[in-house]
Amino acid sequence: MRTLAVLFTLLLPASALAANLTVKVVDPQSAAVSSAQVSLLCGLEDQKVVTTQTTSAEGTATLPVRQKGSCQIKVLAAGFAQELIAVPQERELTIVLRLATSSETVVVTATRTPVPGNEAGVDVDVLSGLQLKTTQPTAAADAIRFLPGAIVNNAGQRGGLTSLFVRGGESRYNKVIVDGVTINEPGGTFDFGTLPLDQADRMEFVRGAQSTLYGSDAMTSVVQVWTRNGSTRIPELRFGADGGNFSTAHGYASLAGARSRFDYNLFGGEFNTQGSYTNSAFSDSIEGANVGAALSDHTSLRVRLRHSNSHTGVPGGWNFNGSVPIVSQPTGGPSYPLPPNPDQWSQLNSLLGDVDLTIAAPSGWRHHITGFDYLYRYNEQNPGDPDRVSPVFGPIDFSSHEVDRINRAGFEYQGDYSERTWGHTTFGYRLENENGFVGDINFGQTHGQRLNSDVYLEQQLTWKTLTAIAGARFVHNSAFGNTGVPRIALMWQALRGGNFLSGTRLRFSYATGFKEPRLEETFNGIPQNPFNLPNTALKPERSRSFEAGVQQSLFHDRAVLNATYFNNLFHDQINYVEVDPKNFVGQYVNVNKSLAHGAEFNLQSKLTSGLLLTTAYTYTSTQILDNPAPIDIQFNPGQPLLRRPKHAATGVLSYLGSRWGANVGASFVGRRPDDDFFGFNIKHAAGYVRADVGGWYAVNSHVTTYVNVENALDRRYNEVVGYPALPINVRAGVRFRLGGE
Asked: Which terminal CB of the chain, N or C, has fewer other CB atoms within 10 Å?
């Protein structure tokens, strides 16, 4: 008994000091923020990560605090500024997150783990859920076009094939991820005009080569979107509708909430419009679910499904830079304008799903195990139009029926270790099966299948004012064999600064990237199409990229100026080359090479707590270095790459308050090389300016009205030569909120 009494006396002080601190994390509108990373750091200079927890669906995390004074709480929530707070005396703490400039905003895509933007080593921009609520984009293209460095080209109007060009790269050099699932076609092809953003919690846009962390396609950018989690104890029903000119109608609804260890968000929506000219109608429906469960204090499970089904008319190029070419009929009859195709249409049906298991244990460790599946179904039918005639080639519109059926499935493990604040390790393994049938069913389809097996590692180290990030990825592909891509980035806090110049950061990075061939490029050679030989030795396209930049904070970090020089060499690019010109037989080979370099300037200003201003300018110079089989003089060595303007600029002014929000966005895209491809000898697309405005007002806690005006200046322009953009279009609506907190 005496021994037990002594032990009790010795243990009493330690147990008395042990206590749990409950931290609740909320956004500026007091809504709970789930999945925020809350860490307890202890120590004077060399702080140790005692524990890291993830906030629940209700925005809470519990930390076992055993000492005070030298301990701090760090909160990293994607889309908001980092918060660092001393451990309080109280046992409960509410932390209100702040909206901030991109350099302060916590991002995930740059390093695959939460990190402040100025520590990411790359240029990254974020659109939060609050910002997306203000702009009300109908598709990803409408959201990303006003971000720095993004050049969006829409071949048509809503639903038209929409490409993204970043830092002079091809449109297939962008990795697109939704809820952790890659949704590019194998080989990088992606249409930004058919990705709806209903219930999107945020979007991140990272510029630069990121193949080390994300594998194929991430040669010039990564775009990632997350779906909103449920967060209210009382179920919250949201529904609304809006409409506008061109017979535009949009309706949507969601049911979300959180109870005990579970959270859920079930949603759906429908969008329809007729467009402004022949065969430009577009419709899109979306349904989805995001369900999570906290299996224990350290383990959580999340299941997400997202289905989209869109249908659009495909009018074909007909109006070039505001003019309609006149074409003489071969019979010598009267002249007439080249008309849009009234009958061609396309349909895209996609389904993605993933199951994610997260384990935050032991101390300093986090493990993510994800299984994913993506189904892509594309159908485009053209009965042909004899009225579409070229003065050089004669009839140009023939019957076709393209059908693509693609499946990407696999699993991925990602581990993170961060025992000290000065070091973080990310590593992982990914296995993916790509299987698809692609091509025109009238000529027979190509079937291709590849198995990708990837391992990757990235290490972040900080010593005083110097931060280094080094990583590598090794890929084994069943079709093209082995490849590896390294990356290194250095960041140096050169000056701490004062009142006006509040801090200067310098950075440099070098990286290589790769993009696997499309299925039809490797596996073509079907009996119905003997003119296209398969090339099983076809290698991926490659890039060598380096960039150097400076980040200057101003006025106590209320404004940040970023300047970046980039230099990208793209080689082993794939081109179709005739190997038997006499019989018109060819195949795809790695022969092309091109260069893109330039500079990006970006000024972000936090004018007030809710008022943000971002302005940016991008200069890009491109050149074809090698092309042994050009199909046109525009593709000869020495020529610039198509659809990459030398000059582009954007500006966004946004306000987010408790009762109302507003947004004004402007984009300037300069004259750029292009081609009509019909023989009209049109070799450029004219520059243009586009402005969008929008806003919302909360009548009360249950009713919000909003209005959005796109192309508010009603400019007539072509993003892709031959395809007139949508004139001024207005949408106004109201949304309701029942339940919730």
From this structure: N
